[in-house]
Amino acid sequence: MSELDRIDRAILAAVQQDGRMPVAKLAERVGLSETPCARRLKRLESDGYIEGYRAMLSRKALGLGVIAFVHVRFSVQNQSLSDRFEREVRAIERIVSCHNVSGTADYLLQIVVRDLDEYGTFTRDVLRALPGVTAVESMLSLREIKRESGLPLA
């Protein structure tokens, strides 16, 4: 990866806010002409600073009213069991993020569902059935204060 200068950081900040911004507008925002701006954007993509582009969807419009953060614990630490767990988690759409963490839990999951009834069923039928899971501790979000808004570029 190459070193980021002020303009690279400005490009990253701008596309992090609006990934659909036309190159002409991006160039104007960062103080470059279109061609050098497009070249830098391509370099940032090929160097791996930009992993992709996607839309932020509305949970409310999609009827996903419950966010749960879940600590998952294993009773035994086994690499093949962890690998199976992680593989299965990647395939479950309702699990929107999964982190292997330190502390009292082995994994922290973020789950979105329609309502508490669906969450109860999901916990019973899906979470507790995952390989290696011996304990599940749920924390329900009462109110979202800040949604992922991008990475710090300082």
From TrEMBL:
One Pfam match: HTH_24
PANTHER family: LEUCINE-RESPONSIVE REGULATORY PROTEIN (PTHR30154), TRANSCRIPTIONAL REGULATORY PROTEIN (PTHR30154:SF46)
Taxonomic lineage from the root: Bacteria, Pseudomonadati, Pseudomonadota, Betaproteobacteria, Burkholderiales
Any GO CC annotation of this UniProt entry: cytosol
Source organism of the structure: Candidatus Burkholderia verschuerenii
GO molecular function, one term: sequence-specific DNA binding
Domain (HTH asnC-type) ranges: 4-65
Name the UniProt record assigns to this protein: Transcriptional regulator, AsnC family
PROSITE patterns: HTH_ASNC_2
GO biological process: regulation of DNA-templated transcription; response to amino acid
SMART domains associated with the record: HTH_ASNC (SM00344)
Keywords, comma-separated and alphabetical: DNA-binding, Transcription, Transcription regulation
SUPFAM superfamilies: Dimeric alpha+beta barrel, Winged helix' DNA-binding domain
